Q: What sequence folds into this?
């Protein structure tokens, strides 16, 4: 198994892990920790793909949005001497001497993780951050310096490892401090949406999502899936407009699932929430799927995930169902969609996005 570049860098510093009580946050692959099998370690995952690969038994998890909005959630699985948590926030009482954070994409997400990590540390604890140089490790170092003296420990594989020795007192982490409620308006509907750092399009309505909501085909019935739901913008809008619908909202991100639950609560709505990697391990049949799906942002465009999603969407849809999807208009989705659906229509377009409506 090939380790991620971040973990190839950590492999060069195995002595670092010899002592202390360690928490890993969002490891970038499921294999590096096998090299620390004999050590008792806690691992917090905000992403379901690496969580499910790490625990190797859980293909997807279904939640009720009311339960999450009231109590949050934390799914725990033991693998040997490691305890893996799938959760938006770390709410156990455990305290650590060392926390290893894998640098996330968004700066605001990183700031939140730093505060969360600081809240779990024992006195004189250390926070380590590993990340790709092009992923903003330099600006990460600046943010870490606010917490205490920060050093670069190693760098290779286009990644760096930084360590901060915490100084001073750190307040307990409170998710409410990071949560904001915004009011979005589309056509003649206005509704509240909850936003948290690390969730797609934090604090603003995405232009692609807006096009989908304005121009979607409205003859929806039965059960609808908001695939890749983010903050639950699409699902909450559809339930507000069409109260007869039942919704399932799915995302790989625990923060997205938590935020969707909070958005539904703010609208007095209730729905099924599913944590999954794509539609892998999902069996719920639905009448319609409405989505602004994840897109690949790397240098090389890879359509494997999209192709698999389209194949799986066909499997989950009832035969009279439909898939409505908004995407960057320059991506070759019409071709991919017509491999699995006989009718593929472009129902709206802007300079940037196309909206597709497909059926059998
Ligand atoms: C383009 S955003 C759309 C979010 C939301 N529907 C909206 O319109 O604001 C795509 C979402 O896909 C999620 N995602 C990324 N990879 C995924 C995967 N493998 N399985 C499920 N969801 C995924 C991301 O967490 C993100 O919330």
A:
């Amino acid at each position: 198994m090939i380790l991620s570049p971040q973990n190839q860098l950590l492999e060069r510093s195995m002595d670092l892990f010899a002592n202390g009580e360690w928490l890993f946050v969002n490891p970038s692959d499921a294999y590096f920790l096998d090299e620390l099998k004999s050590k008792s370690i806690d691992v917090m995952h905000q992403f379901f793909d690496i969580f499910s690969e790490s625990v190797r038994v859980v293909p997807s998890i279904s939640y009720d949005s009311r339960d999450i909005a009231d109590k949050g959630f934390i799914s725990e699985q033991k693998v040997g001497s490691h305890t893996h948590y799938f959760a938006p926030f770390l709410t156990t009482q455990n305290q650590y001497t060392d926390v290893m954070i894998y640098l996330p994409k968004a700066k605001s997400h990183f700031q939140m993780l730093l505060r969360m990590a600081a809240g779990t540390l024992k006195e004189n604890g250390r926070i380590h951050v590993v990340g790709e140089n092009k992923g903003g490790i330099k600006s990460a170092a600046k943010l870490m310096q606010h917490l205490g003296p920060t050093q670069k420990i190693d760098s290779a594989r286009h990644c760096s490892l930084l360590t901060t020795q915490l100084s001073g007192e750190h307040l307990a982490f409170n998710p409410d401090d990071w949560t904001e409620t915004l009011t979005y308006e589309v056509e003649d509907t206005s509704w509240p949406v909850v936003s948290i750092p690390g969730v797609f399009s934090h604090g603003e309505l995405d232009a692609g999502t807006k096009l989908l909501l304005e121009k979607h085909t409205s003859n929806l019935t039965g059960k609808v899936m908001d695939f890749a739901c983010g903050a639950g913008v699409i699902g909450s809008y559809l339930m507000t407009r069409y109260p007869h619908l039942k919704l399932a909202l799915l995302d790989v991100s625990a923060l997205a699932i938590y935020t969707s639950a909070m958005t539904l609560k703010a609208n007095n709505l209730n729905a099924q929430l599913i944590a999954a990697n794509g539609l892998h391990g999902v069996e719920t049949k639905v009448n319609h799927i409405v989505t602004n799906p994840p897109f690949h942002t790397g240098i090389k465009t890879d359509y494997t995930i999209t192709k698999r999603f389209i194949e799986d969407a066909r499997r989950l849809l009832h035969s009279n169902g439909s898939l409505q999807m908004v995407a960057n208009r320059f991506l070759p989705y019409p071709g991919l969609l017509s491999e699995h659906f006989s009718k593929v229509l472009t129902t709206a377009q802007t300079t940037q996005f196309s909206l597709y409506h497909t059926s059998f």
